[in-house]
Amino acid sequence: MYKTPFLAFLSLVLAAGLLLVAWRWPWQATVESNELVLPGTVEAHEVDLSFQVSGRIDSLAVDEGYVVKAGQAVARLYSRDYELALQNAEARAEAARATLAALEAGARAQELRVAEARLASARADLNFARADARRIAELAPRNLATAQQFDQVRLQQDLAQAKVAEQEQTLALLREGPRQEDIERVRAEYQASQAAAASARQQLDYTRLLSPTDGVVAVRLAEVGEVVAPGQAVLRIAALSRPWVRAYLNTFDLPRVTLGQAAAVRVDGLPDKVFPGKLSFISPQAEFTPKTVETRALRVDLVYRIKVDVPNPDGLLKLGMPVDVTLPVVAQP
Q1: Is 149 helix (H, G, I), strand (E, B) or coil?
Q2: Cβ-count burial of 178 within 10 angstroms (0-12 exposed, 13-18 middle, 19+ buried)?
Q3: What is the pLDDT of residue 295?
Q4: What is the number of other CB atoms lying within 10 angstroms of the CB of residue 42?
Q5: With contact defined as beta carbons under 8 Å apart, do 73 and 243 qualify?
Q6: How far apart (Å, rounded) are the C-alpha atoms in residues 184 and 146?
Q7: Long-range contacts of range 258-263, CB-CB < 8 Å, 24 or more positions apart?
Q8: In degrees rounded to 5, what are phi and psi of residue 154?
Q9: What is the C-alpha separation between 88 and 95, in angstroms, rounded?
Q10: β partners of residue 323
């Protein structure tokens, strides 16, 4: 009397087994089909924008969902400190330029005339000292001048002679001009000050954050008034002009496709629109299963992430949009 329930239970188990064998994951296409239809999701190449200098955020020109163009200013740091640093560097560069120009120009005519006049005055003092010394020398033998007076006039004569030599050398230096080594040294200092000014100007430019690509602001990662460090992400831009589709391929269908082959992408809301694409990536590692597969039954669950590049000039594809990817089956030898 237990035979009928047992047969019913056995029939139920067999039916469930047949159902499990016939059931497949959505990304597991029929082996006999000439094409694979895989569900996927639209992704986009994303860029995290960050400042190259530190500072406090002064303004954010965009918010999440805003469309931005390449080169558009999207954020700005408080720049007063960088402006002062630039003014200081430019002032130092201007001072170095003036010093170099003065050395290269040499002595002015007025400076030469002043040096010549000082030399003439020193020579006149020397002539007077020599005449005075001769008078004292003539008076000394007749005891009309003391030895102290004689020593005094000799000292004045020596000082006048040294003064003449000094003024002669000063005039010679002015006529010859600065040494070439001094000019090269000041020129190097001027070039270094120019580089410092250019660096300060670049630092000031870095207080403006520009979008490197056309796209949409996906995430705002900072707020106005927040102090950020160099490299700290402020905004995330999704480049929707070149999106890609994430899909998964099972183990049995993996040999039936090849990198670079054409693909077709369709969206539920646009049944008549086909977006041409290209299979650009197949993950070298299986997902969603243990690393060690010991039974053949578990191998059915192995899937590999693939990437299909899709042009999107009209912006119809959006982030996270579900799509279907059709891949023609590649003939196997």
Answers
A1: helix
A2: middle
A3: 47
A4: 23
A5: no
A6: 57
A7: 258/330, 261/327, 261/328, 261/330, 262/328, 263/308, 263/325, 263/326, 263/327
A8: -65, -40
A9: 11
A10: 40, 267
Cβ 28 vs Cβ 253: under 8 Å: yes
Torsion over CA of 61, 67, 73 and 77, rounded to 10 degrees? 40
Q: Which fold has domain 24-72+219-328?
A: Elongation Factor Tu (Ef-tu); domain 3 (2.40.30)
At 286, phi and psi to the nearest 5? -75, 155
CA dihedral 145, 147, 149, 151 (to 10 degrees): 140
Cα separation, 255 vs 327, whole angstroms: 12
Residue 26 has which token pair?
């959505």
Each residue's pLDDT tens digit, 113-127:
787 788 888 888 888
**Amino acid type, 170:** T
Q: Where are the domains of the chain?
A: 24-72+219-328, 84-202
pLDDT band at 169 (very low <50, low <70, confident <90, very high): confident
Q: How far is 172 from 154, CA to CA, in rounded Å?
A: 27
Q: With contact defined as beta carbons under 8 Å apart, do 209 and 228 qualify?
A: no
CA distance from start to end of the chain: 58
How many angstroms separate the Cα of 330 from the Cα of each of 175, 197, 258, 259, 327? 89, 61, 7, 11, 9
Phi, psi of 173 (to 5 degrees): -65, -40
Quote the tokens at residue 288. 């969603």
Write out the two tokens for 80: 């007063």
Separation between Cα atoms, residue 123 and residue 54, nearest integer Å: 66
Written as one letter, the residue type at 57 is I
Range 57-96 burial, b when 16+ CB lie within 10 A, else e: beebebeeebebeeeeebbbbebeebeebbeebbebbeeb
Share of the chain above pLDDT 90, in %: 32
pLDDT in tens, 9-38: 556 655 555 554 445 544 444 445 688 898
Which amino acid makes up residue 1? M
